[in-house]
């Protein structure tokens, strides 16, 4: 037990130092710090150094990667809660039409193109569906971090991007429910399974909104008057975790959607600035760097057979262009300019935990081969890596507004 704890401490030291050091180098080169943190994970992972298996000092603990992964999950939850704290519900609602178009087309186009290409390369019908579904999933946590650094999170593009991600999350979960009808125990559920999933989502949004608008402000005021050390911060942390848990366990959504909603409702309270200061320190000082590095740690590009690289490259191009064209066209239909549409489309390119969950399920059910699974992980990593510099380039000639306190902390 003592050795496990020491290994855990050493791994955290390596990951945090690597994240901050590479993030600093990245900003010195004119790129977002998150890009350096992602690359640090790729270098530390099985693609290059493989610290959890090739390093004798850490290789004896089989549970260590799981511990790091759990901390990373907390990191993305706090990151999305902070993204919500930076916004106002009214601002997000004003981008509803653009978000809906961008979110829907940003799922439909990558899904069907990915399914078609996988079918052409010999994937089974059910396997091709899950490959397409992996390409359809978006994780905007990295885009949100990049927009924070650029001071553009509350711009029209930033607000529409976060709204589109909510639509994206709902559609991917619905598509996943439909796909589950093809395999396993869910095959007997029929249409009732899909209807039940939709009702779960709707129920979560309704209840979470009612609590967020009427109950949370009163509870927060009451807790802030209690003689408890850091009572407000503790209450808010518990609230964010509960919203995240309920989103996935009860609503059938991703946990990060719940955390984002909690942040939105907390942004309406009088302690918003106080919370941003405290949670930015906690999140960006410890949890968020672990999340970004852990994405790279999950990639093993050496595991892909040479014969499979053709499919991997084509699917990667499809994944990138599918989001840019799909979400970008949706934004244009919604009334954005060509430049704003391109920026939003680029912001939707990054993939993350939802896509990895879909790919992992397909592998466990033996719907895709280990080769195809490695290809999907490769796509998630590369799409995530290229999003920050592409997004920064798309905003390069725009005037950046004054940064908030949380943004200043992310750059340090």
Give an overview of the whole structure.
By secondary structure, the chain is mainly α. It has a single domain, classed as Na+/H+ antiporter like fold. Helix content is about 75%, strand content about 0%. It contains 18 helices and no strands. Helix 4 crosses helix 8 and helix 6 runs antiparallel to helix 14. The chain is globular. The C terminus is likely disordered.
Unreliable segments (pLDDT under 50, ≥5 consecutive)?
400-412
Look at the structure and give the mean pLDDT: 85
Question: What would you report as the Rg, rounded to the nearest angstrom?
Answer: 21 Å
User: How big a fraction of the residues is strand?
Assistant: under 5%
Reported CATH architecture: Up-down Bundle
Give the overall shape: globular
Looking at the structure, the CATH topology is: Na+/H+ antiporter like fold
Estimate the helix proportion, in percent: over 70%
SS element count, helices: 18
What class do helices, strands and sheet pairing give? mainly alpha
**What about the largest sheet?**
none
Total DSSP E strands: 0
Assigned CATH class: Mainly Alpha
Whole-number tally of structural domains: 1
Gist?
The chain has 412 residues and is an all-alpha fold.
SSE inventory with pairings:
Blueprint: H1 2-28, H2 33-44, H3 56-59, H4 64-85, H5 89-94, H6 96-120, H7 125-136, H8 141-150, H9 156-180, H10 190-224, H11 231-249, H12 255-266, H13 272-297, H14 309-333, H15 338-347, H16 353-364, H17 370-394, H18 405-410
Helix pairs in contact: 1-2, 1-13, 2-13, 2-17, 4-8, 4-12, 4-13, 6-7, 6-9, 6-14, 7-9, 7-16, 8-17, 9-10, 9-15, 10-11, 10-12, 11-12, 14-15, 14-17, 15-17, 16-17
